[in-house]
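Show me any protein, keeping tokens residue-aligned.
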Amino acid sequence: MPPPSLSSSISRHHQAPAEIEGQALRTSNFLRQVIEKDLATGTYAQRQWGGGPGDAAFHDAGQPDPAKIRTRFPPEPNGYLHVGHAKSICLNFGLARDYGGVCHMRFDDTNPEKEEKEYVDSILDAVQWLGFNWESNFNGKQESHLYYASNYFDFMYRAAEYLITAGHAYVDEQTAEDMRINRGDFGKPGVASKASRTVTIEMTDNMRYTPADIQVKQGETVRFIVKNKGQVKHELSLGTQQELLEHLEQMRKFPDMEHDEPSKVTLAPGKQGEIVWQFTKAGAVNFACLMPGHYEAGMKGQVKVNKK
């Protein structure tokens, strides 16, 4: 339980703006402006709700949606939440509360090997501690909006097929080597038995790597042991500066995106992993944590590859 002063502050924060000390106080931002415009013009007034996640046909067969807006908070249960998640919780649950809607608590449980019930329980507890819940009570009917993506994989598969046939997505059938060539050559996956040395890199919640500056020789294969010493999820991604910045933009749009490239490792608190890499080209190879807010806080480093 938070201390009484903090509980009071949280309770006050979660009051509707007009209720705070009797003041007609409203905050505004572009999201609220879009929502208010859509509500005023009735953009989605005819929307149907099928009672759960589903495609357009499923919802068209449902009843008129009693919720004025629907938002969602979709964490992946493979680690504990950090301050960025708290911001998303307050944004999505807060907007739903303020505009007569509901926020879906939807776990993106798409990688069972990295997910644990401990993280599910911790996330649910954090949402409630911040003063929110995933229940709705429209027209005297109480419903839970706690969902798991794994329960509707078939729907997501059909959606992926539609996007591909409509020309909005494609299946990349390149080999790992072709992908490496096309995105810029900063080395290639190495063989652990040929590694000339092992370098241990620690990641902490002060958004730093230790060490952050590493020297290697051109052609050298290095085994990196990466350890997450923090309480939130971190990652280490090797790449050119351009590649890292491009991937950073993708992570801003899809913060729970998983990586399976040999040049990247994502770790839950207390876990460790490894990258084995051969540095074939002299110059600088960058590494960074591209999770939202981490890169901006300075979580980055560099490998200097000295010419033979």
Q: What stands out?
A: The helical segments are 4-13, 30-41, 56-60, 83-98, 117-129, 153-165, 176-183, 241-253. The chain has two domains: 4-165, 176-306. The longest helix spans residues 83-98.
